[in-house]
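Researcher: Good morning. I'm working through a list of sequences from a screen, and I'd like to move beyond sequence-only analysis. For each chain I'm collecting a predicted structure so we can compare shapes side by side. This is the next one on the list. No need for commentary yet; just the structure.
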Amino acid sequence: MLDIFSIPLPALFGQLLLGLINGAFYAMLSLGLAVIFGMLNVINFTHGAQYMLGAFAAWLMLTHLEIPFWASLVLAPLIVGLFGVVIERLLLKRIYHLDHLYGFLLTFGLALVIEGLFQWQWGSSGAPYPAPIPGGYNLGFMFMPAYRGFVVVAALVICLATWYGIERTRLGAYLRAATENPTLVRAFGINVPRLITLTYGLGVGLAALAGVLAAPIQQVSALMGSNLVLVVFAVVVIGGMGSIMGSIVTGFGLGLIEGFTKVVYPPASNTVIFVVMAIVLMVKPAGLFGQTK
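Model: Good morning. Structure tokens for this chain:
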């Protein structure tokens, strides 16, 4: 069996695949955060809870309504996205003119309430979700489960489609213009508040979609979002607050770095992302893809 620096190839590529899968979730979640912060200027700490809601929605639909995974992949993000729209209309719109700290505190409190309710109802232990694509592929140097390969490809397609929609389409141009000069955009007859609401719903839907994809890989639990949200915030800071492409590239890249660290020095795998964040902030405070104002 071939080795690289005394590391067996199956172990190395196995951990890199796990890192790539984690990176896919980091990218999708940080992408939603970047969309919300870039367009609404709100630090959405509820993002981890909304990721958990997506996984729970899929699990509840399967166990109580026997709705299969592929239907949940569409229905759960829509339901959670509509929940996000209600939150935006009832609460967030009241704080847009205030300091970032108010948005952070409001969304942090909401996350605690949502996670507390789910923990009270279903406890902290995880619930399994069956893999929708069984089996896998023997690549010679490693075995790749089919569903995990699907998750990586799906996450990449979703991230690039979102980037294209915001950076290269007319609707994306309206969204970006509405954040820079809402008065001018309103003069063209465009409903700016509706654009902002839809943007928040899109970011929440992305978090829920990541949760549905994660359900067959991770245990569905009330704390699955809170365990991830700090890492995702680190990804957003490293990529550059509000940068769409920065979130995608940094999410996948840091997943691979984390996976490689698990092979070389496992005790450092939980902290390597924060070490990278500290180094990036010292060298480029605006983040790798951010712009200094």
